[in-house]
């Protein structure tokens, strides 16, 4: 998230208008506020599994900010089809695997368990089908001997910080053709 925010300066076609989280304690909210960006925190827990009610609450600050594009970054709540439909074609996510491999959770451990020699991250459009929207970009890293999910995850995260800003810049300029970084 901070890499995205930092990238949106100068001739970048986008500017950050809101950083929102379902975790009021998220460090990113504090950092964003320090940078003068509007922030919102809507905890999901009080809604006890009522995803529609959680999303209705989350929607308020988002609509107030009037964003053209939404970027999920570490957002771990599955979004309902109704929420996705509102923003379809203008909501992105970064996922820590080389999609279509390893949708869902625990991607690094699954890559290690499969004996993969390469891993990476993918930016895709968010659709109702989890981690299955159109691919916008991918970056690859090697899996190294002795890797753990943590060490591999850290290597992938460094690439996430390169890939997501690169994809967002193109997307905001109207270019949806996928890019592949290595
Ligand atoms: N929502 C839709 N409709 N489509 C996508 O592609 C989405 C999405 C919401 C989040 C991010 C995704 C990821 O990059 C994402 C993509 C969380 C889960 C999940 O199972 C799955 C995929 C992603 C994020 N969440 C559990 C839930 O019940 C909670 C898991 C937890 O809290 O640890 O919402 O990985």
Automatic annotation (TrEMBL):
One of its GO terms (molecular function) is phosphoribosylglycinamide formyltransferase activity. This is Phosphoribosylglycinamide formyltransferase. The keyword Transferase applies. Belongs to the GART family. The lineage of its organism: Bacteria, Pseudomonadati, Pseudomonadota, Alphaproteobacteria, Rhodobacterales. The record marks 131 as: Raises pKa of active site His. (6R)-10-formyltetrahydrofolate binds at residues 51, 93. Gene3D superfamilies: Formyl transferase, N-terminal domain (3.40.50.170). Keywords: Purine biosynthesis, Transferase. Catalyzes the transfer of a formyl group from 10-formyltetrahydrofolate to 5-phospho-ribosyl-glycinamide (GAR), producing 5-phospho-ribosyl-N-formylglycinamide (FGAR) and tetrahydrofolate. CDD domains: FMT_core_GART. GO terms for cellular component: cytosol. Pathway: Purine metabolism; IMP biosynthesis via de novo pathway; N(2)-formyl-N(1)-(5-phospho-D-ribosyl)glycinamide from N(1)-(5-phospho-D-ribosyl)glycinamide (10-formyl THF route): step 1/1. It comes from the Bacteria. It catalyses: N(1)-(5-phospho-beta-D-ribosyl)glycinamide + (6R)-10-formyltetrahydrofolate = N(2)-formyl-N(1)-(5-phospho-beta-D-ribosyl)glycinamide + (6S)-5,6,7,8-tetrahydrofolate + H(+). GO terms for biological process: 'de novo' IMP biosynthetic process. Transmembrane segments: none annotated. It holds the Pfam family Formyl_trans_N. The active site is at residue 95. Residues 8-168 form the Formyl transferase N-terminal domain. It is an enzyme of class 2 (transferase). Its EC number is 2.1.2.2.
């Amino acid at each position: 998230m901070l890499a995205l925010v930092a990238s949106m300066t100068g001739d970048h076609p986008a500017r950050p208008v809101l950083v929102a989280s379902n975790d009021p304690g998220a460090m990113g909210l504090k950092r964003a506020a320090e940078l003068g960006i509007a922030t919102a925190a809507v905890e999901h827990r009080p809604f006890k599994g009522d995803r529609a009610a959680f999303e209705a609450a989350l929607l308020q600050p988002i609509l107030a900010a009037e964003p053209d594009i939404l970027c999920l970054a570490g957002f771990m709540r599955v979004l309902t089809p109704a929420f996705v439909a509102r923003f379809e074609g203008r909501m992105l996510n970064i996922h820590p695997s080389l999609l279509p491999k390893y949708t869902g959770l625990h991607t690094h451990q699954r890559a290690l368990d499969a004996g993969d020699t390469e891993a990476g991250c993918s930016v895709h459009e968010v659709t109702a089908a989890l981690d299955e929207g159109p691919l916008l970009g991918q970056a690859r890293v090697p899996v190294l001997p002795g890797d753990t999910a943590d060490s591999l995850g850290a290597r992938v995260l460094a690439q996430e910080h390169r890939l997501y800003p690169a994809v967002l810049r193109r997307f905001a300029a109207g270019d949806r053709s996928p890019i592949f970084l290595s």
